[in-house]
Specification:
Length: 248
């Protein structure tokens, strides 16, 4: 068995006496795309907060990324080590072009310097050109990001995340507010990233979950714990999951 790229072991998080996450165990393989679902308030965003260092777990739990214990690292360090996060609402630099949004997102200080001095090394330029094709914004590279449609902004933000060269991507509801065609295209994009990258995707749209989990596993969170984990069909037919989602 390959060793996991991410191990979350016995992690809890309490806010003012309220347990948002309770004794959570979660393992992600290198190159895996895992979909995380769960009702509102299940703890999905808190789970991302804990992995990305935005929030610290209660004493006792442990989060390991590769062979690094990141439990007590701060958000900036964790990002630099290779965990990138995309929030639900796209936040792009509206007044900059699509291409410059990618330049500004290059790993480390080189993005800001390249942008400031209007000079990019050819390796970065080629990589960003490929990235533009991948997110299907090649023909809009000179548009201001603020002019893009909502779905295109989401893709640009995934591109920005990739420009920063993360090993693990945490993606919160990428299909929110998208048309069916955009949603499907987003699924294809995420599936194409698996293998080279490891991904955890939080999502509500069950059609989309079915698409991106076609070869992978789904984890269901409920009241801060893992309720069930498995292939899409197994999860969908699980009695506990049906009770939580459908009240029966
Ligand atoms: P989800 O993303 O699955 O909808 P969240 O992780 O946002 O759920 O929230 C899980 C629970 O933890 C909720 O009851 C929420 O109110 C609580 N919670 C999350 N973050 C905080 C916080 N910073 N302070 C207090 N309570 C919080
Ligand atoms: Mg949430």
């Amino acid at each position: 068995m390959p060793s996991p790229i991410l191990a979350v072991e016995d992690v809890s998080k309490t806010y003012d006496g309220f347990k948002a996450i309770t004794n959570l165990n979660f393992y992600l393989d290198q190159g895996e795309l895992r979909t995380v679902i769960g009702p509102n308030g299940a703890g999905k965003s808190t789970f991302f907060d804990l992995i990305s260092g935005r929030a610290k777990p209660n004493p006792g739990g442990k989060i390991t990324f590769g062979d690094i214990d990141v439990t007590q690292r701060n958000e900036y360090e964790i990002n630099r080590i290779g965990i990138g996060r995309k929030f639900q609402t796209p936040s792009v630099y509206s007044e900059h072009t699509v291409f410059d949004n990618l330049v500004l997102s290059l790993k480390g200080p080189r993005g800001v310097f390249s942008s400031l001095f209007k000079r990019l090394n050819s390796g970065d330029r080629d990589r960003l050109d490929d990235l533009l094709k991948l997110i299907r914004l090649d023909d809009k590279r000179s548009w201001k990001a603020g002019q893009l449609a909502h779905g295109e902004k989401q893709w640009l933000e995934i591109g920005m995340l990739l420009a920063s060269e993360p090993k693990l991507l945490l993606i919160d509801e990428p299909a929110a507010g998208m048309t069916d065609a955009e949603t499907h295209r987003t699924g294809e994009l995420l599936l194409s990233l698996a293998g080279k990258h490891s991904l955890i995707v939080v999502e509500h749209d069950m059609g989309f979950v079915r698409q991106i989990a076609s070869n992978g596993k789904v984890t269901v969170l409920h009241q801060g714990s893992v309720l069930c984990e498995g292939k899409f069909d197994e999860v969908q037919n699980n009695q506990k999951v049906r009770e939580v989602y459908l009240g029966r």
